[in-house]
Design brief:
This protein is mainly alpha-helical. The chain is built from two helices and no strands. It has one domain (27-90). The chain crosses the membrane at residues 63-82.
Length: 91
């Protein structure tokens, strides 16, 4: 069961002083996963921003309609009151 091969040889200087080794290997799978996640995050942020802008536009439109409705109601009430007052003064 014992194999004649042991662990691969290790450069002790490189392992004990990792700051010296400037030529490190990048794991391509991890790099691709990280890049994909970053792209997905950017896409999600863009979607959220678009959704937020759309909601703000709808909300401002609703607010404009409500304010316009209130102005029309107040103007109608003023005209109705003025007409009633004219009718009372004429009678």
């Amino acid at each position: 069961m014992a194999s004649s091969e042991g662990f691969p040889a290790v450069d002790a200087q490189k392992e004990l002083n990792p700051g010296i080794d400037k030529d490190f290997q990048v794991d391509s799978v991890s790099s691709n996963v990280a890049a994909t996640k970053e792209i997905e995050d950017q896409i999600n942020e863009a979607k959220k921003l678009d959704e937020r802008k759309r909601k703000e536009a709808v909300q401002s439109f609703k607010t404009a309609l409500i304010v316009s409705g209130i102005v029309v109601a107040v103007a109608g009430a003023v005209f109705a009151i003025a007409r009633k007052m004219r009718e009372r003064n004429d009678a």
